[in-house]
Amino acid sequence: MPVWNPSAKEKDYVHRHSEKIMGYIYISLSYLLWGFLALYWNALDTVSSMEILAHRILWGFIFVVIIMACQTKKRRAFFKLFKEFKVNFKQFSYIFVASLAISANWLIFIWAVNFGYIMEASLGLYITPIVSMVLGVLIVKDNIRTGTLISMIMAFLGVLVITYEYGKIPWVAISLAMTSGIYGLTKKYIKTDTLVGMCIETIMVIPFALLFLVFIQRNNKMYFGSDIHLSLLLISAGILTVLPLLWFTEGSKRMSLTTIGFFQYITPTITFLLGVFIFENTITLIQWISFSFIWLSLAVFSFSSCKGITKK
Fold it and tell me: What is the pTM of this model?
């Protein structure tokens, strides 16, 4: 039987196709885990949101350091990046912006939960994909098909319906969406190793987490250490924080922001379904209409993407 000897062009096509598939897997895993984390945070409902955030940062940092300590190449890449700081200044700038964006996103969400803006926080999850797609088109110059444009409009209509029901400009939701969108955008420009970048990212915010934990410890308001079960959950929260971020970073390097924008609907959809079937929240007719618009937009986008692949 003749042996297939692929040309350089065919090898390049296979490589790009496999990279795209890996991108789909990484992004899907990250948003799936983010969606189901609602169940995990519900198990920590007795702990303040700020303490949960601080432990996510602290134990996430420790988890990353442990992984790097076991990999010589990662450690070398980490120290080399700092050694050539002037050359890599732009990369440090992108990482710094990413760390600020994700930290601000977490803080805004915590503030929204603590002060009763849960509806706006939920709305932010739906606005985020639209912001990512717009940033992808305007800044990264992602190509956009007619079907993708139509699906974007449908998704935007779905968000408008929720906004109309809410009754005013949802500044909290917009802030959540913008910080998340900026985080995704900066990840497109960070070319350092995923784990190394994550380590530097956590280093930039770990001082704030430690200061807060020291503060609540001195005021006897820390839950950590008071119960073994809660303590283990808080430690694991760091791991569950780092894993989806690592997956997201790997996926964002292989996919366009426009495509990532639609995958972001996975998280709010899971949250929506958990609210209906697990937490038994009442869903209004307007919310069902909005949800239908968003799913219809996904159907149009999927059809458009499949059609594009078939033509190729």
Answer: 0.79
